[in-house]
Structures are given as structure tokens and as C-alpha cells.
């Protein structure tokens, strides 16, 4: 049985309108969000050395590239929409798939949409004019705009997303060039002195702290798998989806490393310690108020494109779950783009927007999404049993799977010590997903 045959064969044909450029833009848009513009300030407070902050970004880059290859291996063998829900429900057990879908609903899409919309509102409003109603109004407007584009016609949402991603990359490239070309060497104020100690963690406790800090930075990389959620609507999905994830992740990795080098070395270290506005602070250190203003515009574009990409990808998971009967059938839109599921996703985001603060869930999100991704990659061990004629893993894919799972395990183990509350919250979220699955099955039987 081919991987694609795991879907029902009586469904009407689905329009294949997503090519490699759009899929790559989706990955880039999904990855470059609130995390990259805030994580280094929190990491600097935990690690107290810019070199160690950069080390965490490099380690997470390797983790994300390995993850994109591992997810690519899944997409080659099962080129269908649904992401972790699809892989775990088809290859392991429906209960695990439902739990992954629940994680996607809560942590994978709803909360990141809220974080991105609130981040865009934060950087678009001057502090002197910021009020609670105006702040929420701007965030809701961004969600409404993205929802309207996706519901009216899927191609419109994809085109707007691609345009914003292009502008975002152009502005970030201009910022990087400005910093490296025009900022004199003696004005990089964050360069550590010899008295600050080595950048390499010199003992086990230091490594645990680095791995714990990776939970923040992992959040910035977790969107590398965005293309798997829309595989049904992708042209030549078994080829283009893996390529889009790998190419998009490499593009974002280069951008992240260059940006964060500037973020931690351009301003004085004390200026960014524990600060969430690290990008704006660094931009002001590089080019004064003018560059800081342009950086704010770039961040607004980055977070707006994240809202667009999340509202494109997320509803496809709920659509697939509805097709399988583990969510209300009304969310199923077989053969069409999931309009009602998109509206439900937007409504959930607007509700959560009024309940949660902007950055309090960053560690929780990084841990939860990393754990869910690791479960999906683990399902590759079952694929030969479920899809007998699926091609065996290549050496590169096998190495990528091992690296991705090993690093994820280290992050989770370290976070049990460094972020105990967030770790418990992650476990509770997984547990609630299983409870909901059992309850749904009982409702169906009655």
C-alpha cells in the first residue's frame, strides 16, 4: 500500500496550487516570528555570555536542520496534509494522533497566532499611544485580515503571505548589511572581555543551563515543519514538501545566526539582559532611532506573515481530524480549502488573545512543540510495518532522525530542572489530549 493510499480514495480531487516557492515561503514565515526577536534577551540573562547565547542558536540550528530532513522522510512516504496528527494516527495509534492534533490546536497554532498578533501590535504602536483596547484592536485586525484572505480564496492568502515574506527578508537583509558594513569594529559594545570567562560551557551544570535556554530558542525554529500541514494542496508533494522544509530551514538559519550575532554583540550586554525588545535595542545601537524604526516595521511584517502562515497551516490539521471522525464533521471540507476550520481557528485565537500575556508561554511552547515533533519523527520506526512498500530510510535520514531525537531528549531533560513549571504544564497538556480522546470515543459509541 502506498503512503498516499492511506487517505480515502473516494474523496473529490484536491486543487494542487502550492508550488515549491510558496511552500518555502510558508516555512520561512512560520519560523520567523516572535521568538527570534526576543529569545536572546532571555537567554543572555540565563547564560551571562554572548558566546554561549550564540552556541545555543547554533545547536538549535543543527537540531532544526536534522528535524527538517526527518520530517522530509515522513513527507516522502506519506505526502498528505495533517502533520503530526496524520503521522501518529496512521502509523502508531489513533490516540496518539488525537493527542498531537490537540497539541496543534492549543500549542501548535492558536497560541503562536496570538503571540504573533500581539507582537505585531506591540511593535506597531508607540508606547505613548498604547492602550489596552487599541493594542487588542490592532492584534484582532491582523487576525481578521489574514482570516479574510484565506477564507475568500486560498490563493489570495498564499499570495499575500509570499509578498510579506519577500519584504521581510529584504528588510532583514538590509539590517544585517548595515550592521556588518557600516558599524565600526570599536562600536560593537557587547564583545566580551577576557575577564568574563570562556564561552564554552566548562562543566555539567553550565551545559544543563545551555540546554534549558534552548527551550526558548527551539520555539524560534519549530516552524520548520510547516509544509507538511498542506501537503494535500502541494504540487509534487513527495518531492517539494521535503525540499521546502530543508531549503526554508537553511535560509532561516543563516538569517537567525547573522541577526543574533548583531543582537548580542552590537549593544552593551547589560542593555539586553532579560529584555524582550532585544531587536529594537540592537537596531538602535547600530543605527540610532531611524534604524530602530525600520526594525519595528520589519518585526511587524515578520509577525503578520506568521499569522498568515499559521492560519494557512493549522486548519488543515482540524480538517484532516474531522475527515477521520475525531472532530466534528462540520469542519471537514473535503476537496476544498478548509474555510470553516479557518474561521474556528481565528475565533479560538481571538478568545485566547484576551486571556494570555505576550511572552509568558514561550518556554512552554518550545517544550511542547519539540516533544510533539519528536513523537512524530519516532513514528518513522513504524512506517515499514504500516506501509510495507515504503522505501527504507537513507543513511542521511537515519542520522537526522537520531540527531533530532537526541537533542530533543536533552532539551526536555534539562528543562525538567530549569523550567519545571513549564515541563509540568506540557505533561498536563498531553494528558488532557488523551482524556479528550477517550471522552470523544465514548460519545461516538453512545
What does this structure look like?
- With 446 residues, this protein is an all-alpha fold.
- The protein is globular and about 70 Å long.
- The protein starts with 19 loop residues before the first helix and ends with a helix.
- It has one domain: Up-down Bundle (Amino acid/polyamine transporter I), CATH 1.20.1740.10.
- It contains 16 helices and no strands.
Short description:
It contains 16 helices and no strands.
Topology order in helix (H) and strand (E) letters: HHHHHHHHHHHHHHHH
In the predicted model, the low-confidence regions spanning at least 5 consecutive residues are 1-10
Looking at this structure, what is the CATH superfamily?
Amino acid/polyamine transporter I
Whole-angstrom Rg: 21 Å
Helical/strand content category: mainly alpha
Can you give keywords for this protein?
16 helices; 73% helix; disordered N terminus; globular
Blueprint of the fold:
Layout (H helix, E strand, L loop, with lengths): L19 H12 L7 H9 L2 H28 L5 H9 L2 H31 L7 H21 L1 H29 L21 H18 L15 H29 L3 H4 L5 H46 L15 H15 L8 H17 L1 H7 L8 H24 L1 H26 L1
Amino acid at each position: 500500500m502506498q503512503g498516499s493510499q492511506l487517505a480515502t480514495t473516494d474523496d473529490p480531487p484536491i486543487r494542487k496550487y502550492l508550488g515549491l516557492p510558496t511552500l518555502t515561503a510558508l516555512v520561512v514565515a512560520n519560523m520567523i516570528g516572535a521568538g527570534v526577536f526576543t529569545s536572546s534577551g532571555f537567554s543572555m540573562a540565563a547564560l551571562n555570555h554572548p558566546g554561549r547565547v550564540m552556541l545555543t542558536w547554533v545547536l538549535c540550528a543543527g537540531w532544526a536542520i536534522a528535524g527538517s530532513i526527518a520530517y522530509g522522510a515522513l513527507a516522502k512516504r506519506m505526502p498528505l496534509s495533517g502533520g503530526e496528527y496524520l503521522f501518529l494516527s496512521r502509523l502508531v495509534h489513533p490516540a496518539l494522533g488525537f493527542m498531537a492534533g490537540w497539541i496543534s490546536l492549543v500549542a501548535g497554532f492558536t497560541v503562536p497566532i496570538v503571540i504573533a498578533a500581539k507582537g505585531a501590535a506591540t511593535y506597531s504602536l508607540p508606547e505613548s499611544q498604547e492602550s489596552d483596547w487599541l493594542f487588542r484592536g490592532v492584534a484582532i485586525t491582523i487576525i481578521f485580515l489574514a482570516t479574510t484572505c484565506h477564507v475568500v480564496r486560498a490563493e489570495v492568502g498564499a499570495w499575500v503571505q509570499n509578498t510579506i515574506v519577500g519584504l521581510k527578508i529584504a528588510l532583514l537583509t538590509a539590517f544585517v548589511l548595515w550592521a556588518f558594513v557600516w558599524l565600526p569594529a570599536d562600536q560593537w559594545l557587547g564583545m566580551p572581555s577576557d575577564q568574563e570567562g570562556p564561552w564554552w560551557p566548562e562543566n555539567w551544570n553550565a551545559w544543563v543551563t545551555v540546554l534549558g535556554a534552548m527551550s526558548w530558542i527551539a520555539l524560534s525554529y519549530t516552524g520548520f515543519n510547516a509544509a507538511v500541514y498542506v501537503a494535500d494542496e502541494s504540487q509534487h508533494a513527495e518531492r517539494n514538501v521535503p525540499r521546502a522544509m530543508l531549503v526554508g530551514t537553511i535560509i532561516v538559519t543563516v538569517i537567525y545566526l547573522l541577526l543574533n550575532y548583531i543582537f548580542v554583540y552590537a549593544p552593551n550586554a547589560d542593555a539586553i539582559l532579560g529584555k524582550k525588545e532585544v531587536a529594537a535595542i540592537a537596531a538602535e545601537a547600530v543605527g540610532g532611532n531611524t534604524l530602530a524604526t525600520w526594525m519595528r516595521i520589519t518585526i511587524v511584517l515578520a509577525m503578520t506573515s506568521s499569522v498568515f502562515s499559521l492560519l494557512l497551516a493549522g486548519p488543515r490539521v482540524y480538517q484532516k481530524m474531522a475527515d477521520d471522525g475525531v472532530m466534528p464533521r462540520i469542519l471537514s471540507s473535503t476537496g476544498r480549502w478548509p474555510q470553516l476550520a479557518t474561521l474556528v481557528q481565528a475565533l479560538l485565537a481571538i478568545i485566547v488573545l484576551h486571556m494570555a500575556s505576550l511572552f509568558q508561554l514561550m518556554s512552554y511552547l518550545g517544550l511542547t512543540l519539540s516533544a510533539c515533533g519528536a513523537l512524530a519523527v519516532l513514528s518513522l520506526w513504524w512506517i515499514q510495518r504500516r506501509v510495507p512498500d515504503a522505501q527504507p530510510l537513507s543513511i542521511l535520514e537515519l542520522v537526522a532522525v537520531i540527531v533530532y531525537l537526541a537533542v530533543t531528549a536533552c532539551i526536555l531533560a534539562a528543562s525538567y530542572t530549569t523550567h519545571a513549571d513549564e515541563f509540568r504544564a506540557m505533561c498536563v497538556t498531553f494528558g488532557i489530549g488523551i482524556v479528550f480522546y477517550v471522552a470523544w470515543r465514548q460519545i461516538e459509541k453512545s
